[in-house]
Amino acid sequence: MSAIIVSPHFLATKAGNKILEAGGNAIDAAIAVNAVQGVVAPETCGIGGDLFALIWMDGEEKPYCLDSSGYAGSNVLNAKLSNHDSIPLSHAATVTVPGAVRGWETMHKKFGSLPFDTLLKEAINLCQKGFPVSKELSQSIARHKTSLKKQVAAENFYSSGKPLGEGEILKRRKLGDTLSYIGKEGSSFFYSGELAKEIVNSTKNLLTLEDLANYKSLWIEPLSLDIYGKTGWTTPPHTQGYLTLATLKAYELSVKSSNLIDHHILIECYRALAADRDNITYDYYEEINKFKGLDLNYVQEKTSSIRHDSTSIFSSPEKYGGGTAYMAIKDSMGNAVSLIQSNFYGIGSTIGVGSYGFFLHNRGAGFNLKDNHPNNLYPLRKPLHTLSPTIWSHNGELDMVIGTRGGRHQPQLLSQFILPHLLKSSSYEENMTRGRWTIDHFGESTASKLIIEPSFGNKFIKELTEKGHSIKVTDSLQASFGPISAIFRKDNKSWIGLADPRVETAEASMR
Fold first, then answer.
1. Residue 267: which domain range?
2. Exposure winner among 40, 139, 276, 424, fewest CB in 10 A?
3. Residue 264, CB half-sphere, CA atoms under 13 Å: how many?
4. Could you say which DSSP state residue 289 is in?
5. Angle between the 263-274 and 458-466 helix axes, to the nearest 10 degrees?
């Protein structure tokens, strides 16, 4: 049985392979992949961010689901935000407790096989010896130059005042030291002591030492839904993962059997269901039975106004960013991990924890400032999360591991990528390079506004335009429309892993 790793960066994929070669399992490899990804691509994720994971253990019929996302600080109401309509992206109030490090340890304690410090060795090595800067990283540190240059955590990101260019070598020795201590001492090094004090100081005491010390990752029940004969699994709210499954189910209920995808209907299904997203933010830990977002009556009711010949009017969810890394891992024993880790907006808040060489995410920007809203900024509350990993099973066996970055667009990208596989309407490779669309602004009295990749062609554009969609065509495949990482079961004996060509560093490895 094949072992497969797909990640957004070839160095992360390589690190995971080393762990598998050393006898580690998919969970060990996932931690190593994530650690390296945060080192070499801090514009996507890092130890200052959150983590979710779906873990499939061979012989079981559903995945384990880990919520390692953080909550707002106890003192967050002391933030001076009365003159703001939303929380500024670089404000300390956007920094919720970072969950990734505790998540690694929680995963490892339950399922890991190799020593924890072994899993971080490649990340530490890259910090000390250096690695080539990617095009995406170079662009990101150039874009954030004003806020990053004053951060000690970014002291090596610039040379003679200029951002490092693509291919130049970056060393992150302070981060390497931090990872080394985490490997030896565990997550307590991160959530207590001097490092925790520096996090508190960096957030101007909006986070407290108690907030960090008391933080725990949670094993929760995943959501699931049967669609076209397969079962999709995802993380429940406060994430938006349910939207992927609900959109695909709504499509199945709306379209008569056909291998030809009706993108108009798929778009309208998403729009109808996404209208409620901002209000479905409850943390369903131990109370998943209360969530009705995948109830068939709810799905049918929300999509009942969809018209096959024209767009409908639906309210618009708020915009949220996407600085995220998704990685899919499967070992030769049949275990698999669907892991997503994020800073939220690029490098995050750009608030550094200087002595320790990393940056804090700004996931708290997912809160709003509306009085009495279920997603308003409030102490120890978790914000709405855009992260939407999936695992798919068929007749109780692992079938697909799929996810992407993309912020609010994740369910859009995943639903249009997964649907052809459910319908068996295209090859695995063809579907990865097929054109994609995203829906940006739409609201009351507003047409559906699509951004689409050029490979769709003029006929497709004409048909959607005639149905009322407003369309903007890109000049090439868009990096922000991925990268999707995917693992598929081809038959009883063979598997395939695919990396997305939209991001040049992405790599799939099969062994």
1. 220-320+404-510
2. 424
3. 20
4. G
5. 50
For residues 237 and 150, membership in a common domain is answered with no
**Amino acid occupying residue 76:** V
70 within domain boundaries: yes
Least confident of 187-191, 491-495, 496-500: 491-495
State whether 170 and 55 are in the same domain. Answer: yes
Burial zone of 281 (CB within 10 Å; 0-12 exposed, 13-18 middle, 19+ buried): buried
Q: What is the three-state SS of 155-224?
A: CCCEECCEECCCCCEECCHHHHHHHHHHHHHCCHHHHCHHHHHHHHHHCCCCCCHHHHHCCCCEEECCEE
Phi, psi for residue 142 in degrees, rounded to 5: -70, -40
Which residues, 6+ apart, have CB-to-CB distance to 179 below 8 Å?
Answer: 35, 39, 47, 120, 123, 124, 127
Q: Where are the alpha helices (DSSP H) in 373-441?
A: 410-423, 428-433
In Å, what is the CA distance from 89 to each residue of 307, 348, 363?
38, 8, 9
Q: In one letter, which amino acid is 7? A: S
- Please give the C-alpha separations between residue 208 and each of 96, 198, 200, 239, 478, in angstroms, as whole numbers: 11, 10, 6, 25, 40
Q: What is the pLDDT of residue 121?
A: 99
For 241, the token pair is: 């993962």
> What's the pLDDT score for residue 361?
95
Tally the domains of the chain.
2
79, HSE (Cβ side, Cα atoms, 13 Å): 27
Please state whether the peptide bond connecting residue 483 to the residue before it is cis, i.e. omega within 30 degrees of 0: yes
pLDDT (tens digit, 9 = 90+) per residue, 390-400? Answer: 999 999 999 99
Which two three-digit tokens encode residue 37? 């990804």
DSSP state of 277: G
CA dihedral (336, 191, 93, 356) positive or negative: negative
Residue 372 is predicted with a pLDDT of 87
- Cα gap 401→407, rounded to integer Å: 19
Q: Do both 153 and 298 map to the same domain? A: no
Q: Which amino acid is at 207?
A: L
User: What is the pLDDT, as a whole number, of residue 284?
Assistant: 67
Residue 493 included in any domain = yes
Same domain? For 215 and 302 the reply is no
Sign of the four-CA dihedral 339, 341, 345, 347: negative
Q: What is the pLDDT of residues 326-376, one digit of tens each?
A: 999 999 999 999 999 999 888 888 899 999 999 999 999 989 899 888 889
457: left (phi over 0), alpha (psi -120 to 50) or beta: left
Q: Residue 259 sits in a domain of what CATH number?
A: 3.60.20
Cα-based torsion angle of the residue sequence 410, 89, 278, 447 in order, rounded to the nearest 10 degrees: -70
CB 367 within 8 A of CB 377: yes
Residue 132 falls inside a structural domain: yes
